[in-house]
Structure of Triosephosphate isomerase:
Amino acid sequence: KNLRKAVIAGNWKMNKTRPEAKALIEELKPMVADAGCGVVICVPYTNLETALALTEGTNIGVGAENCHWEKSGAFTGEISADMLAEMGVKYVVIGHSERRQYFGETDETVQKRVRAALDAGLTVILCVGELLAQREQGITEEIVGLQTKVALGGVSAEELKRVIIAYEPVWAIGTGKTATAGQANEVCRYIRAVVAGLYGQMAADGLTIQYGGSMNAKNAAELVAQPDVDGGLIGGASLKAPDFTAIVEAAS
Ligand code: PEP
């Protein structure tokens, strides 16, 4: 575990106008300045410029919540990885379950977006996770293993250093139902074994694998203490500076 870096990343989803974003970042900056883990905020496209300007010279990294796989073209409403990179954005969330559920994202489109993001020089936060019905059928590992393998298709060992995987059981996202620390660790460990099969044990040991799904100030410490859980991807609790800070402190 001490071979790798814990990262706490906020996923703001479709929240915060620019004045609201500014207020949250200003509040957060001094609170996480001494963090002993990586700190990232993934914000709506409309807040990227604000977030980049306000976090310049700080320990807070800025990410987007998605990107398209083409460099440019007739894709109304989409944003390319190159557009993000040019702004100075360093991270991008790919394959979030809300994109898979509501916007037709598939393992194949996730793979294409991962490719584009890595080509643009971004670090990818790749989300994988099973539905409740899949867990109940006992196929969690099969699903998560397949999502991981397809998404990493064509990713080189060198590029893997710019990949973070977030294990997010879909039944735990935004539901207040957190996976137990044991469940979270079990699947994170499985993902690491899948990655070891593809890239070797050294690469797998260096990979940051986060847990996500209703992580909050109260349950974070137990989750991030698990041997295969290297921080978290935080939705709801990333929208309030004290809550997000408490999670950062738990992972520090
Ligand atoms: C997420 O959006 O990635 C997430 C984990 O959300 P929440 O923390 O609100 O469950």
